[in-house]
Amino acid sequence: MRLAPLFGVLGALLYGIVGYYLGVSIVGTYQLTTASGPVVWTATIAGMVLGYFLAPWLIIAPARAARNFLRSVPMDDLVAATIGLAVGLLIAALLAYPISRLPPPFGGILPLVAVLIFGYLGATVMTLRKADFFSLLRPTERSAAAERTASQQLLLDTSVIIDGRIADVADTGFLMGKLLAPRFVLNELQYIADSADPLRRNRGRRGLEMLDRLQQNPGVEIEFIDLDPQDAQQVDDKLISLALELGAAIITNDYNLNRIARLQGVTILNINELANAVKSVFLPGEEMPIRIIQAGKEVGQGVGYLDDGTMVVVENGRQYLNQEVLVQVTKVLQTNAGRLVFATPEPNNLS
Prior knowledge:
Layout: H1 4-27, H2 37-72, H3 75-100, H4 106-128, H5 130-137, H6 143-151, E1 153-156, H7 158-163, H8 165-172, E2 178-182, H9 183-193, H10 198-216, E3 222-225, H11 235-246, E4 249-252, H12 255-263, E5 268-270, H13 271-277, E6 287-291, E7 294-295, E8 302-305, E9 311-314, E10 324-335, E11 338-349
Parallel strand pairs: 1-2, 1-4, 2-3, 4-5, 9-11
Antiparallel strand pairs: 6-10, 7-8, 8-9, 10-11
Helix pairs in contact: 1-2, 3-4, 9-10
């Protein structure tokens, strides 16, 4: 580094002075005589040499580490921590005088302790409550709009990206909020796309293609964010933590993530539930044509499927296997796997 020689010279001067006073303290006098001079000069030169070689390492390495750390800290966290630190130091300064009047040794030690404690508490509390603090700075009439904007942030889960139906939903214009794709979700997608298993590799590549499709859609606002919660290790836990921090909802079709996130108060938009909600509604007594494609589990049952994938179980329908018949709905059940329709064949055969 180009500043290393400059730091070396400054370190040599500083450590040379320290070495000089160390030599003087050893010989007990400032007079450089034949006996004391060599000791003082040796200590001074040793300090200068030590300072020249150690100063760049003591200054540059911490400065580089601090620079890399500050680059990874989000700007809102940095601003909140700075404001909190300033407030904490101000409180410590106001308490310094009365604390310093305490009898020794407390009067000399506690002011420094107060600076450390209140500075740390101020930065920590402000960072943890930054959302509440910044919301107070906004005008009151805009608070409701700010809350709506925050609630419209939608975090994408890995499973829903790979599933691909989110791109079709986005094409319809029903996604009104901003889609957020965290960096750790992209890393998991890339890991799946680089898998040695062909099935996993194809799933990962499909997910990357869906993200590209969403990004190319002019009606969709999607943002890739670098926020990575450090209080969680698994991707699902990171998503929940990030959703709580941002006040965002999670779009997923993962059943386990759905349950765990809702237990923690996170809003979940489940693609599977959406698909079930928009399926055709059939009431008992209605008639519809269905093609029997396989036998059912019970004796005489036949099974067919509607265009949206809904299973239709037809009593006494096995005799119409591979035929299209008119059936009458008798019962509709809603299960975790989706909607299940039971029907009986009408006397008229449509085949």
